[in-house]
Amino acid sequence: MVISGGSRGVGLAIALRAAQDGANICLLAKTAEPHPRLDGTIFTAARAIEAAGGHALPIVGDVRRDDDVEHAVRTCVERFGGVDICVNNASVINITGTLELEMKGYDLMQDVNVRGSFLLTKTCLPHLFEAENPHVLMLSPPINLGDRRWLRDHVANTVAKYSMSLWVLGMAEEFRDRGVAFNGLWPRTYLATVAVRNVLGGENALARSRRPEIIADAARAIFLRPTRDCTGNLFIDDDVLRAEGVTDFARYRPPGTREEDLLPDFFV
Q1: Cα separation values, 176 from 126, 148, 183, 221, 224, Å
Q2: How far apart are CA 241 and CA 230, in angstroms?
Q3: What is the spatial distance between Cα 134 and Cα 260, in angstroms, rounded to a whole number?
């Protein structure tokens, strides 16, 4: 598995769940040194993956840079013999309105979310073609053009995230005959991540957020599905788990909260 932005949060949760199955995991992330506003580094993430039963290869790099991505995929193949899963988790959120959004903020969302996801996927594809059950997963939302509030309130952010979802829909058709599955996965509710803490509401929002493990369990369920039967979907995490027979989601909630207390995520 190659995963971008796996130092913390959703990316690390997906990696840790895969590690429980003994997976080989290549982390491509920027955080090599501790940061006061971020949890952990690529190296603490790698140690946690090893402790969970997986095999980790931390590769410091930037998904925006061609050389970094090519180096990461090449190094992963050299270490583990191939790539069977590509997870595009690295993402930037900026919910500033059009007039207030600085172009460097716009460029960052486009470079990481849109270009970075395309680049990592494109670089992994030659190796995915050789895998037995290859999956590409985008951490991207369902596209809902009927509800214009997402376009109204933060159109640049919405365009960047919807672009990732369009990669899913387009590449699923482009490579359907090659047997590579492309799917998107998005949370029903806020998840307890650095983005929620630092950008989307702080401690009050965290208290009404599910744990990232819910999306990790949903991702695992997707990866286990046959690729030719599961491609071109923009999934919601709890829908995936319900299809697997899960009916009780209490373990993903903060103690003492009810489902109705949780904050719905953007785009759902």
Answers
A1: 14, 31, 12, 20, 17
A2: 15
A3: 36
pLDDT tens digit at each of 268 positions of the chain: 999 998 999 999 999 999 999 999 999 999 888 777 777 899 999 999 999 999 999 999 999 999 999 999 999 999 999 999 999 999 999 999 999 999 999 999 999 999 999 999 999 999 999 999 999 999 999 999 988 999 999 999 999 999 999 999 999 999 999 999 999 999 999 999 988 888 888 888 999 999 999 999 999 999 999 999 999 999 999 999 999 999 999 999 999 999 999 999 999 9
Cα 157 to chain center, whole Å? 16
Q: Does domain 2-261 have CATH number 3.40.50.720?
A: yes
Please tell me whether residue 4 adopts helix, strand or coil conformation: strand
Question: Residue with structure tokens 């013999």?
Answer: 81
Q: 262: alpha, beta or left, given left = phi > 0 and alpha = psi -120 to 50?
A: beta
Distance separating alpha carbons of residues 156 and 260, to the nearest angstrom: 29
Joined together, the tokens standing for residue 5 give 């932005």
54 neighbors 19 (Cβ within 8 angstroms)? yes
HEC assignment per residue over 190-207: CECCHHHHHCCCHHHHHC
CA distance linking residue 185 with residue 266, whole number of Å:
13
Please report, for the chain, the start and end positions of each structural domain, with discontinuous segments joined by +: 2-261
pTM exceeds 0.85 for this model: yes
